[in-house]
């Protein structure tokens, strides 16, 4: 039952829309329409040590509709996770991405599954973007067998190696050198692919980031460092943590681009530009100007260090889903009702998946001792009382 | 005593001290002698030749030929794409190594000494050791972290710590520590071929020591199984466990004890994690007495784990309390006389073995 909901969605939308299109014989099925449309990004790109790409982005109805559906799915998923956490079905840490969806979908539109993505702990939507399923997300959050890490990882440790998603990391900043290592391996293997290493404005001050950037620049690694600047590192605003919050410039000798991270098309354009650059010239930094509606995690209300006006202001003016909705409507690619239907459908999908995920059992006790090693050598491992609980590692 | 110890370490008078009997018992056709350095170098060379995914990374490993010349000649042979000189940024380059291992390459990351691994320890533990578990088997990390560990000579507190017990306490890591050239070759080759992260603890003072090796050891397919200790010398009166340089000391202590009619069994651990509990316990069940020897700090050390294991599994077989010989519980001093007091000496091992055998001279009343 682990269907890729994103892929099957287009066929479902066609079914939904067929009756409508038959009543309006002049309208083509929008979900498969790839007629190019050119859109201007909301703001121009700002560049450092390079020439910025054009503000004109090529897209098409199919892509815009996919953006809409994918972001609506991600948004709904994160809000549902909020409720599950409050119902104590999700434990420990839960860092939600709602508001930042445009970065995940825009990036996927510019790259292939052979390119690598690695991020920190705010990884649920990035995982979906890489082809992970809703069931794998909810089951993992609730610590069940159907989870992407079989319930053994939790919110911060989602991985999908077959589509080159390398997690899911809890230690702030660690994922950046790891990402540069992925880029190293891609270059070593002559794969002609790139790695996107995502980090936040809080992680941007980590020393290991600059160590990895130095080596990446020296060795011309195809590494793209993407700062998802949501302006708050946990409860600390960027101006209180960074002497220079111009994160796209912090690479010094490494070029950088500042991007409106709430505009999926701008993100797509920037990532496409960065991939071409990285393959030819080595590392580049992308700063995505984005925003998270939730607090840092579920333990943080998110309103003690920022005003509710600020949060609602961004929601009204810069929401990534609303932007795409307006674009779709203004280009007459779908009606308001059709878009609302998509949102209803997504909501139902999320609800149904949660029901399914709740039925997935917790891991077997023997799973405590699996995957400690790839090759356990028949060695013994112990439980809390080693005279009671022992296991042989396969 | 220190001067004699130094001479031994430099391998000059080594052959004179080792009795011919144990040489014949330990090695099949002991024809050739190679240094630990040559053993490590040849192991790296052969594994790089056999698998194009293996590459080396570290400070001075390339053009400088290796800070301790372990990687000598490898840059010339394999080129700068496979032998990479890094800047002095352990956190950065270790993270890069682990990331490359995520993708499927097989990095061998050198720390100039394991003291510097502390700058990168988050990547060793959180990024490497735990990944296979957290990802339920999706992300395995076939990486080797190698370099000199423990005390050298006169290098002071910040350059002398032994990290065996720190790393060996972490599930997900394998921790190996060779003693002689056979160990160095076999264990390093096994480590590079292993799909899990391996911490490979060498010893600077052993690099120049020569040991006899058989043709089997010199063969390019030679490998030592991880997790198996070696009984270097058989005995029936007391078991002495040791790893790395201390194996040499334990063997010399055994010769001294022999003269008193105490036949010591010396176990070369080779693998700190997984620890070969069954070999250790089988030996203690035979001898009924145990002395653990290590160079590192005593508290929460390797000896403490071995003692606990024996108490848990073989308590009824113990005829005496377990004795622990370890480095002194102080940061390593510089002055030669204090340094000598801060690391185990052969006479410490002999004394502890005698105590375990209830043959020690009673302590003087003044204390």
How would you describe what is shown here?
The complex is a heterodimer of chains A (394) and B (367). Helices cover 41% and strands 12% of the residues of chain A. With 394 residues, chain A is an alpha/beta fold. A six-stranded mixed sheet of chain A has the order 2-9-10-6-5-4, with helices on both faces. In chain A, a hairpin with a 7-residue loop joins strand 11 (380-382) and strand 12. Chain A is globular and about 65 Å long. Chain B is α/β, with parallel strands linked by helices. Chain B is built from 16 helices and 14 strands. Chain B has helices at residues 2-9, 14-17, 20-26, 36-50, 74-78, 90-103, 121-129, 131-134, 164-168, 181-193, 215-218, 245-259, 277-287, 302-314, 336-342, 346-356; strands spanning 32-35, 54-58, 83-85, 106-110, 144-148, 174-176, 198-202, 210-213, 230-233, 238-242, 264-268, 271-273, 290-293, 323-325. Chain B has a seven-stranded mixed sheet, sandwiched between helices. In chain B, helix 6 (90-103) packs parallel to helix 7 (121-129). Chain B starts with a helix and ends in an 11-residue tail after the last helix. Mean pLDDT of chain B is 92; it is low at 1-25.
Number of strands of chain A: 12
Number of strands of chain B: 14
How many strands, what sense, and barrel or not for the largest sheet of chain A? 6 strands, mixed
Distance N to C terminus of chain A? 29 Å
| Spatial strand order of the main sheet of chain A | 2-9-10-6-5-4
Please state the CA-atom Rg of chain A, rounded to the nearest Å.
22 Å
Give the SSE string of chain A: HEEEHHEHHHEHEEEHEHEHHHEE
What is the N-to-C succession of helices and strands of chain B?
Answer: HHHEHEHEHEHHEHEHEEHEEHEEHEHEHH
Largest sheet report of chain B: 7 strands, mixed
Structural shape of chain A? globular
- Beta-strand portion of chain B reads 15-25%
Q: Quick one: which chains have the greatest interface?
A: A-B, 52 and 48 residues
Assign a percent range to the helix content of chain B: 25-40%
């Amino acid at each position: 039952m682990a269907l890729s909901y994103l892929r099957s969605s287009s066929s479902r939308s066609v079914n939904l829309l067929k009756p409508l299109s038959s009543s309006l014989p002049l309208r083509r099925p929008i979900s498969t329409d790839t007629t190019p449309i050119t859109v201007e990004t909301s703001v121009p790109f700002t560049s450092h040590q390079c020439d910025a790409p054009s503000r004109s982005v090529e897209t098409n109805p199919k892509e815009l509709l996919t953006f809409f559906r994918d972001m609506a799915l991600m948004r709904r998923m994160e809000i549902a996770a909020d409720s599950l956490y409050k119902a104590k079905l999700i434990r420990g840490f839960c860092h939600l991405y709602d508001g930042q969806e445009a970065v995940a979908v825009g990036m996927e539109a510019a790259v292939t599954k052979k390119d690598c993505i690695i991020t920190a702990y705010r990884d649920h939507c990035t995982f979906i973007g890489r082809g992970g399923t809703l069931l794998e997300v909810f089951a993992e959050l609730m610590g069940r067998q159907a989870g992407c890490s079989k319930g053994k990882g939790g919110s911060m440790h989602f991985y999908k190696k077959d589509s080159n998603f390398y997690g899911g990391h809890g230690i702030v900043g660690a994922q950046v050198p790891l990402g540069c290592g992925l880029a190293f391996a891609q270059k070593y293997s002559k794969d002609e692919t790139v790695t996107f290493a995502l980090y936040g404005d809080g992680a941007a001050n980590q020393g290991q980031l600059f160590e990895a950037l130095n080596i990446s620049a020296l060795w011309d690694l195809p590494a793209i460092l993407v700062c998802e600047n949501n302006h708050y590192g946990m409860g600390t605003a960027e101006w209180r943590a960074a002497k220079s919050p111009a994160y796209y410039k912090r690479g010094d000798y490494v070029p950088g681009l500042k991007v409106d991270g709430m505009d999926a098309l701008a993100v797509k354009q920037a990532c496409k530009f960065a991939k071409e650059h990285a393959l030819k010239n080595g590392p580049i930094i992308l700063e995505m100007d984005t925003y998270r509606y939730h607090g840092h995690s579920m333990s943080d209300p998110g309103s003690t260090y920022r005003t509710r006006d600020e949060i609602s202001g961004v929601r009204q003016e810069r929401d990534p889903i609303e932007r795409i909705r307006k674009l779709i409507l203004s280009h007459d690619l779908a009606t308001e009702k059709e878009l609302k239907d998509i949102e209803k459908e997504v909501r139902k999908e999320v609800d149904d998946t949660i029901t399914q995920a709740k039925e997935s059992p917790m891991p077997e006790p023997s799973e405590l001792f699996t995957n400690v090693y790839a090759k356990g050598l028949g060695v013994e491992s112990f439980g809390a009382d080693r005279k009671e609980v022992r296991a042989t590692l396969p | 005593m220190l001067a004699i110890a130094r001479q031994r370490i430099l391998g000059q008078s080594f052959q004179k001290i080792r009795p011919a009997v144990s040489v014949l018992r330990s090695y099949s056709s002991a024809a050739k002698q190679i240094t630990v350095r040559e053993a490590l170098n040849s192991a790296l060379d052969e594994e790089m030749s056999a698998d194009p995914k293996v590459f080396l990374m570290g400070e001075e490993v390339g053009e400088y030929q290796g800070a301790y010349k372990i990687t000598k000649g490898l840059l010339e042979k394999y080129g700068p794409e496979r032998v990479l000189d890094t800047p002095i940024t352990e956190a950065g380059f270790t993270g890069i190594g682990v990331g490359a291992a995520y993708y499927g390459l097989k990095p061998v990351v050198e720390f100039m000494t394991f003291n510097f691994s502390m700058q990168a320890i988050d990547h060793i533990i959180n990024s490497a050791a735990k990944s296979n578990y957290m990802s339920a088997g999706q992300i395995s990390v076939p990486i080797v972290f190698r370099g000199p560990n423990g005390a050298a000579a006169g290098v002071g507190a910040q350059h002398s710590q032994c990290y065996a017990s720190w790393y060996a306490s972490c599930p997900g890591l394998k921790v190996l520590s060779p003693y002689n050239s056979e160990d160095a070759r076999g264990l390093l080759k096994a480590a590079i071929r292993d799909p899990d992260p391996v911490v490979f603890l060498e010893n600077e003072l052993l690099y120049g020591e020569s040991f006899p090796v058989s043709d089997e050891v010199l063969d390019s397919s030679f490998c030592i199984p991880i997790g198996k200790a070696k009984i270097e010398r058989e005995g029936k009166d007391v078991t002495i466990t040791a790893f790395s340089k201390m194996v040499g000391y334990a063997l010399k202590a055994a010769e001294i004890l022999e003269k008193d009619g105490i036949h010591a069994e010396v176990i070369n651990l080779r693998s700190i994690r997984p620890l070969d509990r069954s070999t250790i316990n089988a030996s203690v069940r035979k001898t009924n007495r145990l002395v653990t020897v290590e160079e590192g700090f005593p508290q929460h050390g390797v000896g403490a784990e071995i003692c606990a294991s024996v108490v848990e599994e073989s308590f009824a077989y113990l005829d005496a309390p377990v004795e622990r010989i370890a480095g002194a519980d102080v940061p390593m001093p510089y002055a030669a006389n204090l340094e000598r007091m801060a690391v185990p000496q052969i006479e410490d091992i002999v004394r502890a073995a005698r105590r375990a055998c209830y043959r020690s001279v009673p302590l003087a009343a003044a204390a």
